[in-house]
UniProtKB/TrEMBL annotation:
Residues 42-241 form the BPL/LPL catalytic domain. InterPro entries: aa-tRNA-synth_II/BPL/LPL, BPL_LPL_catalytic, Octanoyltrans_LipM/LipL. It comes from the Bacteria. Pfam families: LplA-B_cat (PF21948). It comes from Marinobacter qingdaonensis. This is BPL/LPL catalytic domain-containing protein.
């Protein structure tokens, strides 16, 4: 089932690409995973990827009075602004972050918000634990894109999660028309100098005439905990995550 290892091409329903790609390509891969499950072609799919630096914003951000000015300023600083179709808040991306996009179908089972978030949080906690990083789910005041299902280490955000649901286009396996595809996404702070990221993020908010709220010391990278750095650390962590997710998701 595993396909397209170490490339940016999604051949079937699984991908682990350690080479940074444009964020638009990563979002497109995520969308194709969702379409494969909603069409009934696959029961599940996932992609582990990283991308070039950008600020990814929801479409609602384009209606803010200073959006165009903010976008031009951020791009001049090397931070292009990319609009995504889903909601939420701005999410910064860099090659030092790891993205996990995962899609599963509900198989006729009504899955609550908490239970579906745990589908992505539990394997991530297991993966981090193997590296000596003890994480748990919680909100963190002052964190970017805050929510109850951040992964947190010592009170600091190490990963953010989000989800989206879409009804399947085919009847459910139980004969009921209630199957949905659940798209889960996590961005994991792996190995990156974070202060510059929160600086440009808050500058974007200011230019959009929104109050800047991101507090730098409410975040932590994996590298800070493990004292490991560099490309080999990031790539190795991604390959280890691939093994954990493959084992976890194949149960669906």
């Amino acid at each position: 089932m595993l396909a397209a290892k170490e490339t940016g091409v999604l051949a079937q329903n699984a991908l682990c690409c350690t080479t940074p790609m444009p964020v638009q390509e990563g979002l497109a891969i995520e969308q194709r995973l969702l379409e494969q499950v909603t069409s009934g072609r696959n029961r599940w799919g996932y992609a582990i990827w990283r991308c070039h630096q950008a600020l990814v914003v929801p479409r609602s951000a384009t209606h803010k009075p200073g959006f165009e000015l903010a976008s031009r300023y951020c791009e001049s600083q090397g931070w292009p602004v990319v609009v995504r179709s889903t909601g939420g808040e701005m999410t910064p991306q860099t090659h030092g972050f790891i993205n996990l996009s995962m899609v599963v179908r509900s198989n006729g089972v009504k899955t609550g918000i908490r239970d579906s978030y745990l589908l992505i949080c539990q394997p991530l906690i297991q993966w981090l634990e193997a590296m000596g990083i003890h994480a748990y789910c919680s909100h963190v005041d002052g964190a970017f894109c805050d929510g109850d299902f951040n992964l947190v280490v010592n009170g600091k955000k190490i990963a953010g999660t989000a989800q989206r649901r879409k009804r399947l286009k085919v009847p459910s396996s139980t004969g009921q028309d209630e199957d949905t595809a659940i798209l889960l996404h996590a961005v994991i702070l792996c190995d990156e100098g974070l202060e510059r990221i929160w600086k440009i993020s808050n500058e974007f908010y200011k230019a959009c005439q929104l109050p800047p709220f991101i507090i730098g010391d409410r975040h932590i990278c994996m590298s800070e905990v493990t004292q490991q750095h560099g490309e080999s650390f990031i790539s190795g962590a991604m390959r280890d995550l691939d093994k954990v997710i493959k084992q976890h998701i194949s149960l669906f």
